[in-house]
């Protein structure tokens, strides 16, 4: 039965998609796991980031989430050129889905109930979330066993971490769903911005200490270039610092899961 | 009667808030205009970015938007330490407001009808939007005379520009509201990522040519540092490249408005 990890953060542009995509690819490439990458962001950036290796078609995710009859996200999973990596793409109707779910009974549990089949086919399921704490993100958190929270070294991203941790607590206490924080991931770390790194970095350590992953993702143009050509950085520029960092993150994620 | 500019882009982290904040401050500082900065992002990043100069309190924006009786955003405008600069802060209930507005008659026109009073008190009104094209952003676009669209030199931001331009067309054709594109602003331009700048930069020029502002905002740590201390960069580090760029943008914005 797959472990399910939601990659979530309220702040825009902190590297949720970059992390979901490259962590998934690292788990497949270096650990030979079967991984499903679900895109819960209506903007469809997972497919855009991996457009070189995915073939589209098949059932739209929105149809599965809005269906009254029981469906499973596995029905929308697409194979990719990477053996073991599958993607459930976002589709344009996910925007409406965010709104349409608001009036539905148990609106936060829709994905949770549509993921049971997929669990049996994969080792890890990663869910990329949009930059807000709306219905789609809530569904991801309620479907997930863990949340992985990327955070760049900016005051706004730092302050956003508290919001998502509060949301995790509410999911646990009010919806009685046991989703834990797998860790907070420092991203886009630029060696040139020493004072900022020091201030926000220290703030993160003081507030969250052991919750922080040891692995930090450096600012590395290989990551943006890989996204521009539609491939994972592990494919496109395997010897880059970005590739090395996501390889290290994959190992650290598995170690943390092992310890749980 | 104030000119109203919505600062909007679907992509997260492209510099909407940084632009709304520093453009507002440049218009006040160098052109002595009366400027109102409205925060339509539930995350309240405008106040976070200027927390050093704002005094909170007063009516919450959500109350004005959800009120059945006619209200005006001017009732929620707060003075700042900068003479001529006022801020209507976001509040926590804006998240609910996004949802609650969905069922309301004429849900895209709420802000438009609540901004008429404010128009008479200011020269320019800037509206910071969340990273999506939901009800809050739609309200900003329908209240606005112009949209200013920041875009960093990444494939996802570039592809997002087409979406917002399509949304502007729909607002014009379906809602019969005349909101024009003031321009597309290249942001976070890093001299070190030459090939990316070239590719995406060329893509922007080929697709949008004259719609692009001449001014490009460079990647400059002064902008992040200013945000971290809660002041505008024009205050905090007036001689930085970031400050110079937003000063140039203010002049270019006024020139374009003049030409209209
Ligand atoms: N470590 C890094 N080094 C360099 N560029 C990066 C890094 N991480 C992310 N980026 C770039 O920053 C931009 C934002 O990253 P990404 O889209 O993954 O963030 P996000 O949190 O998913 O954004 P959104 O909130 O819009 O979903 C992208 O252009 C991406 O290529
Ligand atoms: N030109 C720049 N140089 C350096 N840092 C910048 C620049 N523009 C923005 N930033 C930083 O990048 C991050 C994202 O910027 P900002 O929050 O303004 O974007 P946004 O589009 O408003 O994001 P969101 O989608 O979350 O609302 C912030 O930490 C900001 O300080
Ligand atoms: Mg994303
Ligand atoms: Mg913002």
Descriptive report:
The structure is a homodimer of 260-residue chains. Chain A is of the alpha/beta class. The first copy, chain A, is 45% helix and 17% strand. The first copy, chain A, is built from 12 helices and 8 strands. The first copy, chain A, has helices spanning 16-31, 45-49, 61-66, 94-100, 110-113, 116-119, 135-143, 155-174, 194-208, 221-229, 233-236, 241-259; strands spanning 3-7, 35-39, 78-79, 85-88, 124-128, 146-152, 180-189, 212-218. An 8-stranded mixed beta sheet of chain A has the order 3-4-2-5-1-6-7-8, with helices on both faces. In chain A, helix 1 crosses helix 12. The longest helix of chain A has 20 residues, at 155-174. The first copy, chain A, is globular. Chain A starts with a strand and ends with a helix. The structure holds adenosine-5'-triphosphate (ATP) (2 copies) and magnesium ion (MG) (2 copies). One adenosine-5'-triphosphate (ATP) sits between chains B (12-18, 41, 45, 131, 187-188, 217, 219-220, 223-224, 227, 242) and A (11-13, 131, 154, 156).
Sheet with most strands of chain A: 8 strands, mixed
Reading side by side through the largest sheet of chain A, how are the strands ordered? 3-4-2-5-1-6-7-8
Bound ligands: adenosine-5'-triphosphate, magnesium ion
- Element pattern of chain A in H and E: EHEHHEEHHHEHEHEHEHHH
Number of strands of chain A: 8
Which structural class best describes the helix and strand composition of chain A? alpha/beta
| Principal-axes shape call of chain A | globular
